[in-house]
Amino acid sequence: MPSQSPIPPLLSTHFAVPPESSLTILTSVLGASSNWLLQRYLYSALTSRKDTDASDIIEKEVKVVLVSWLRDLTFWKEGTKRLGIDLSKSFRFTFIDGLGTSLGLGSGAIEDVEKAVIGAVSKEDGSRALVVLDGIDFLLAATETSVGEVLDFVGELREHATIIITLSADAPLIHARHTPLEVNHASLVMSLAHQARLILSVRELDTGVARDVSGVLRIGNGGAEGEEGVEGGELLYFIAGDGGVRVFERGA
Q: How far is 163 from 126, CA to CA, in rounded Å?
């Protein structure tokens, strides 16, 4: 477990489990991964047992379903173990491997994933549900899935759960738009951003590599109603060797 708190103080309000049916987007680029953000969302959801409703504090556990098209369960187990969470022992956590299971990437695969997710987030016990879609943009590159099908898929899941999506935001994919893949990728990212409540984006330092800075974190509201009182801005972060993360303002 890292020596520092898993949730950096400057980000504590952002890592609370988002409102029901809301959409949060985490974007990354080739040299700056958003995995550390996602791991902390998992930590927050799986260690949260209380919800505030008006003036009352009520018990409401959160079921978490992680669908990943990029990384296997072992990767997530190792990452969250450093934060003090053992995914293999959490009865509230379900992992769906978008690549390594019978769901596959063939025709109708996204419908199969949808059915598996909805089945996993059944709310018969009154619990909340958080669904994480890690690398859903991979479907545009590896399959014949259209942007419309992905958006419909996300829209359907939002009727059942809170959604967090990770996406690539490398400049060639967002700004070039010379190839069908680039056009489709940019369309997907922009469409989801318009629906999102909160967008957290990580990138490399504009000035290059620094020993004590891993990258830049940009916080902003999406096109949907954002968090009250949230001001868009940028922070710096440093990922230590033990998995701990320090987030700080420029010049601090």
A: 18
